[in-house]
Amino acid sequence: MLLIYSGHISTRLQYIASVMMPTIGITDWQITTNKDDYLTHEGAKINYSHTRTATNECWIIPHTILFENCIAPQSIIVNQWNQMPVFFESTGSDSSLPFDIFAAAFYLISRYEEYLPHEKDTYGRYCHTQSHAYKHQFLHLPIVNIWLQQLKQHLLQLFGQQVMQPTHFSYIPTYDIDIAYQYQHQPIGKNIGRFLRDFALGNLDAVTEQAKVFSNISADPFDVFPWLNNLHQPFQLKPIYFVLSAINKGLYDKNIPLSNKGMRQLIKQLQKQAQIGMHPSWQSHDAYHLLEQEKKILQHVTQNNINQSRQHYIQFSLPQTYEKLLQLGIEHDYSMGYGSINGFRASFTTPFQWFNLAINEPTNLTVHPFCYMDANAIFEEKLTPEEAEKQLQHYLHIVQQVNGTFITIFHNHFLTSQPDWLPWRMVYQNFLSSLRID
């Protein structure tokens, strides 16, 4: 067992230790305030206090944040240590780490900065440019996991493998189904209008494509689901499809309603191969009654309890959105990333329990961070397919190095074989071809 000594056991310290320890393979651990028990402990130990107590210990000098109950602006000064950005540094000591890894990890994982006054982007979301990860150029790194690798190495040097269990990399492909079909199951008037417009503009490829779909010669371009299933099978991947189920169409909610027979059939087919999650509409962000209705409709179609969710356009605010999801019975959220840039919003690439700073308590909501979304690469960062493929490989390799969980978001309507989208389809296909899972 690994024993952590602290002069005080706070809710925040208990929480962040419960996140950090399993990440480096430590499942048997405990925090104590009894110094005698700590000193006589023969196993691995971490001294989380202001005074060194033994020579054979990992000594970390605490910052104050884990022993506070309030939310207040923190002094964040980022410096480099072992070629890594760190903050909440300890000065003038021979501590094992030159910064408080517990406090720094808590600040980033809890999204502390998002509870403070901040700027919103054009969609009303927390603006990524406000984050310390962006300002100090470590958004592209799961820096908490990287710090934890350093802590793990230090503990191994001191105590060997006695408390460590192996950890493993995993990959979870996820998809947002905002528009399941381009032509099929769309309103007749919409298809006729589109056909006449393309014909008048001389867009004969689009006219021919639509004619082939309705003649059953070709599949709908957005119906890439059989292709995806074939990609998943060699790696035994377990995908999750988040289905937009807005009751009323809107500027950002353009899905085919779940009252449509074709949509219901698609969901039932996907259920045989994957998990189904809800994708709350833009309109439901500030309307809890709509959120409830959308979940009920999706549960009626699937005949299953829906306990997984991802926000449409990654539209969420802390703590309000997560509080609503918990009230709704959602246990797993996959929204922890940005809808404006790729990277690690929580600087962490491992699922974790959400800590609600507003009540200073951990919750039962498991947060599953993502770091790559195709829409970000295409529309926000304006990458070429070649650049996006390199970026995707970067995130894959860095998550593999820390044995984290790699979660990507792709949209079916950006994975078609239509000429404009074929290069992006190949980005994903090439990525999966390079995937290696032990």
Query: For this structure, what is the CATH homologous superfamily of the largest domain?
Result: Glycoside hydrolase/deacetylase
Treating each run of at least 4 consecutive H or I residues as one helix, how many helices? 14
- Percent strand equals 5-15%
* Total count of strands: 15
- CATH overall fold name of the largest domain: TIM Barrel
Largest sheet, in brief, is:
5 strands, parallel
CATH top level of the largest domain? Alpha Beta
Helix-strand pattern = EHEHEEEEHHHEHHHEHEHEHEEEEHHEH
- What structural category arises from helix and sheet content? alpha/beta
Strand order of the largest sheet: 9-8-7-15-14
CATH architecture of the largest domain: Alpha-Beta Barrel
Number of domains: 3
Span of the ends, CA to CA: 28 Å
Uncertain stretches of 5 or more adjacent residues:
none
Round the mean pLDDT to the nearest integer and report it. Answer: 95
Assign an overall shape. Answer: elongated
Rg value: 24 Å
Helix content: 25-40%
Structural features, described:
The chain is of the alpha/beta class and 438 residues long. The protein has three domains: 161 residues, no CATH class; 228 residues, Alpha-Beta Barrel (TIM Barrel); 30 residues, no CATH class. 35% of the residues lie in helices and 15% in strands. It is built from 14 helices and 15 strands. The strands form four sheets. The protein has a five-stranded parallel β-sheet with strand order 9-8-7-15-14. The chain has a four-stranded parallel β-sheet with strand order 2-1-3-4. Strand 8, helix 9 and strand 9 form a beta-alpha-beta unit. Helix 6 packs antiparallel against helix 7 and helix 13 packs parallel to helix 14. The chain is elongated and about 80 Å long. The two termini are 28 Å apart. The mean pLDDT is 95.
